Amino acid sequence: MRVRSETDREILRLAVPAFLALVAEPLFLLGDAAVVGHLGTAELAGVGVAAVVLQTAVGLCIFLAYGTTAGVARRLGAGDQRGALALGVDGTWLAVLIGAVVTVAGIALTPWLVGLFDVTGPVEEHAVDYLAVSFAGTAPLLVVLAVTGVLRGLQDTRTPLVVAVVGNLGNLALNVVLVHGVGWGVTGAAIGSVLAQSAMAAALVGVLVRGARAHDARLRPSPAGVARAARTGVPLVVRTLTLRAAIVLTAYVVASGAGADAAGATRIATHQLAMTLWTFLAFVLDAVAIAAQALTGRALGAGDAGTTRRLTARMTRWGLWSGVLTGAGLAAASPLLGPVFTSDPDVHDLLVPVLLTAALFQPVAGVVFVLDGVLIGAGDGVYLAWAGLLVLLAYAPVLLLLGSGTGLVAVWAVFGAVFIGTRCLVLVLRARGDRWLVLGDAPAAGAHERP
After folding, report:
1. Which domain holds residue 200?
2. What is the mean pLDDT of each run of 10 residues along the chain (451 residues)?
């Protein structure tokens, strides 16, 4: 019982502060949605389309946080803090390089990216305006991801928490001033987010620089180290790409069946709100997964398979009960959430059954996120990549077979039953085996084998 109590305290020590740091981007989008939603349904729908693109671009780079957490934690477990910080510095430079490329390409391709969602009229115009400006914040946000990953690997989730809270409060204040005070509309919301993201990046880089100097770790990029960080991140990119593809495909089916009238805008806006709320809750559940990444990497780096097993079993229970609580909370709050984001009564009416459907699958999602974090912390990247492809191959045909005329509630039911359910199956099967238990200072996010 004492061991279990100590384990719970350690999970809480990492998971609770990780929560707000982890949900930085969903909170940015929730803040934008809350401010923009009162401008009109078309504005909200436009931000919703842009949000899918932004979340995809940033989500594909989540390996900058996840892979770095695992690698740094393994080095820490092996007693090499200087090497852990050097690894983190290389990951941060990689974030700068990727961010520069994504920013330039994203701004140039903004009209084409919005056009992929088959939206027209004011919704298309607002989506382009918001997305073109928001891409300027990509590099700072990727730096935030990378440095946050370093600090998590060092078992420090409090610093990212402070930066996330201050950054999100600043973002909300800027949005209110620029959108309603200055009158810049959706463009003002995007500018506010970019400014807040840049300030967050500067604060976290300052923390990393001080830590590197304190342990005599280099600050200049190592070409070999940056290349190694990129190579080890490839499996996690594939894994994330399959997840984002499923979400984008879901948004496409919703948007393609919406049409250009008011009912179509209502359908898109409702889906955007539901997906933003689901993403927010997913990151709530993923806070335990962040603890799983850091603790699993540290235990394996120290060569302790027994502790790794014990941590996995305990954190899986945490994930399950966290999902039960978030699901119950979402169901209870479903009638109250619509008016927070929009004054459109049609969106209010449609949002309630969609959120109730999403709430049913929260316990399964809790298990999924925790086991995903365990395997990322173990560096089992290739299995996660192949498993993601299998899940996508199972989900896409079912969704497309339903067609664009499918009701929004039915789309969400398929998303929960097929997408989340299949992910749970492949992760549980993997966690029961031993092939992911690689001890010592092994390469993080590296692969072990196909499923």
Report:
1. 2-432
2. 68 77 62 74 82 81 83 84 88 93 92 84 86 91 91 88 87 86 84 91 94 89 85 86 86 68 69 82 82 86 85 90 92 84 75 90 94 89 93 91 75 92 95 85 48 48
Q: Is the pTM of this model over 0.85?
A: no
What's 12-73 look like in SS3? HHHHHHHHHHHCHHHHHHHHHHHHHCCCCHHHHHHHHHHHHHHHHHHHCCCHHHHHHHHHHH
Q: For the chain, what is the domain count?
A: 1
Q: Judge whether 423 lies within some domain.
A: yes
Place of tokens 């201050």: 166
**92, 150 in Cβ contact below 8 A?**
yes
Q: What is the DSSP letter of 217?
A: -
How many CB atoms within 10 Å of residue 189?
31
Both tokens of 56, joined, read: 């995809």
Query: What tokens were used for 318?
Result: 């945490």
- The CA-atom distances, in angstroms, between 290 and each of 92, 103, 140, 236, 440 are 19, 27, 21, 15, 20
CA distance 145 to 271: 26
Query: In this structure, are residues 326 and 366 in contact, taking their beta carbons and an 8 Å threshold?
Result: yes
Q: What single letter denotes the amino acid at residue 165?
A: V
Residue 439 within a domain: no
441 is a domain residue: no
Q: What angle do CA 12, 14, 15 make, to 5 degrees?
A: 65
User: What is the helix (H) or strand (E) element at residue 349, kind and residue range?
Assistant: helix 345-360
Other C-beta atoms closer than 10 Å to the C-beta of 294 total: 31
> What is the three-class DSSP state of 80?
coil
> Which structure tokens are listed for 147?
């440095």
Is 105 within a domain?
Answer: yes
Neighbouring C-alpha atoms within 13 Å toward the C-beta of 248: 21
